[in-house]
Amino acid sequence: MTGLGCRAAADPPLADRPIRAVATTGMIADLVDNIGGERLELTGLMGPGVDPHLYTATAADMGRLARADIIFYNGLHLEGKMSTIFEDMRRRGIRTVAVTDALSATELRPAADGMHGPHDPHVWFDVRLWMKAARHVCEALKELDPTHAASYQARTDRYLAQLADLHAEVRRKAEQVPRGQRVLITAHDAFYYFGQAYGFEVRGLQGISTAEEPSVEAVQSLAAFIAERRLPAIFVESSVPPRTIQAVQRAVAARGHTVAIGGELFSDALGDAGTPEGTYIGMIRHNIDTIVKALAPAQGEP
Question: For position 12, what pLDDT does the model report?
Answer without folding.
Answer: 85
